[in-house]
Amino acid sequence: MKKTFAYNYSYDQWESWINEHNHPVYRAKQVMDWLYQKRVESFEKMSNLPKSLRSQLTESFELHPLKVITIQKSQDGTVKFLFGLADGHAIETVIMRHNYGISVCVTTQVGCRIGCTFCASTLGGLKRNLTAGEIVAQVIMAQKHLDVSNERVKSVVIMGSGEPFENYEETMKFIRIINHAHGLKIGQRHITVSTSGVVPNIYRFADEDWQVGLAISLHAPNQDLRSSLMPINRRFPLADLLDACWYYLRKSGRRLTFEYALIGGKNDQDEQAHELGKLLQGMNCLVNLIPVNFVPERNYTRTPRDQIFKFKRILDSYKVNTTIRREHGHDIDAACGQLRAKNSQLIQGE
């Protein structure tokens, strides 16, 4: 019998399973506590559960779907994991240290089919979606790594490889599990999900009626340029994307983040800065300028430092809130998908 991965279960599912196996439902809270607060390595260590329940859990559930293939550690404290999955595929997860606390960047798909020309994640195409539990396990593994130094994951960004809104149901389930009072208790305001612009699911996300942050990968201020950098823009045109963004702003009342990767000579000139400023003027948003990581297969160059600051000054002149992302892991394979591509010979399923 194939076992179910324990971290795939929400609290409600644990209550149902416990009840079906003739145990009092309060055992569900105890199981969740062992999984998420104590982070045990085996069901046998759940010492306040009756032996019969521990045996049933061992027979029915798997606790270890991720194995560490390699870890890279940066001088700035960034830690990047390459995890192997049960089917031989591999995914990346990153721990990043900020002045406001530690965040973990999780992956939602093995590979990606979106095809953004500046991203390494899409080089091998999409292999499959991850389950909610496989996404949860990335945070658990990161937290176990931090347990050694008595540190805690404060926030989660769903910005790793893949398009979260093309794996919508499992991504939403993941958020609910890590946010739950008996899960990792990570507050909704400390969770952000990023999309390349899957318009129908931006509307769905706005209607979830919660406080989880939303980031849009924009990267260009007009239809033609964005389509050349991000093929998804042909399926969901920029005008439709902006309509969905305005709907989100009206529905949620929260500020929206636009991610803008600056690519030398492509989208980083004064002309594009003015165009972007006019496009977003009056919108409750933050533009996060990201100096693009060099990906050998893409041959893109980084925007000169002076031009990055000039681009920001132009956006400021339109009263568009703008930040320049602090780089993490510049001395390791920082870009999404780079570590997986570099270690393809070690990955069975690739």
TrEMBL record:
Reaction catalysed?
adenosine(2503) in 23S rRNA + 2 reduced [2Fe-2S]-[ferredoxin] + 2 S-adenosyl-L-methionine = 2-methyladenosine(2503) in 23S rRNA + 5'-deoxyadenosine + L-methionine + 2 oxidized [2Fe-2S]-[ferredoxin] + S-adenosyl-L-homocysteine; adenosine(37) in tRNA + 2 reduced [2Fe-2S]-[ferredoxin] + 2 S-adenosyl-L-methionine = 2-methyladenosine(37) in tRNA + 5'-deoxyadenosine + L-methionine + 2 oxidized [2Fe-2S]-[ferredoxin] + S-adenosyl-L-homocysteine
Q: In which domain of life is the source organism classified? A: Bacteria
Please list the residues that bind [4Fe-4S] cluster.
Answer: C112, C116, C119
Give the main location.
Answer: cytoplasm
Return the CDD domains for the record: Radical_SAM
Q: How is the cofactor bound?
A: Binds 1 [4Fe-4S] cluster. The cluster is coordinated with 3 cysteines and an exchangeable S-adenosyl-L-methionine.
Q: Name the top EC class.
A: transferase
What are its E.C. numbers? 2.1.1.192
Q: Which GO terms describe its biological process?
A: rRNA base methylation; tRNA methylation
Compartment(s) where it occurs, according to its Swiss-Prot or TrEMBL record: Cytoplasm
User: What sequence ranges are listed for the domain Radical SAM core?
Assistant: 98-331
GO CC, alphabetical: cytoplasm
Q: Which residues bind S-adenosyl-L-methionine?
A: G162, E163, S194, S217, L218, H219, N293
| Keywords per UniProt | 4Fe-4S, Cytoplasm, Disulfide bond, Iron, Iron-sulfur, Metal-binding, Methyltransferase, rRNA processing, S-adenosyl-L-methionine, Transferase, tRNA processing
Q: Where is the active site?
A: E92 (proton acceptor), C336 (s-methylcysteine intermediate)
Q: Which cofactor does it need?
A: [4Fe-4S] cluster
Q: Which PANTHER family match?
A: 23S RRNA METHYLTRANSFERASE, RADICAL SAM CORE DOMAIN-CONTAINING PROTEIN
According to its UniProt entry, what is the function of this protein?
Specifically methylates position 2 of adenine 2503 in 23S rRNA and position 2 of adenine 37 in tRNAs.
What NCBIfam families does the entry give?
A: rRNA_mod_RlmN
The UniProt family comment states:
Belongs to the radical SAM superfamily. RlmN family.
Q: What else is known?
A: Reaction proceeds by a ping-pong mechanism involving intermediate methylation of a conserved cysteine residue.
Q: What is this protein called?
A: Probable dual-specificity RNA methyltransferase RlmN
Q: What is the lineage of its organism?
A: Bacteria, Bacillati, Bacillota, Bacilli, Bacillales
Gene of this entry: rlmN
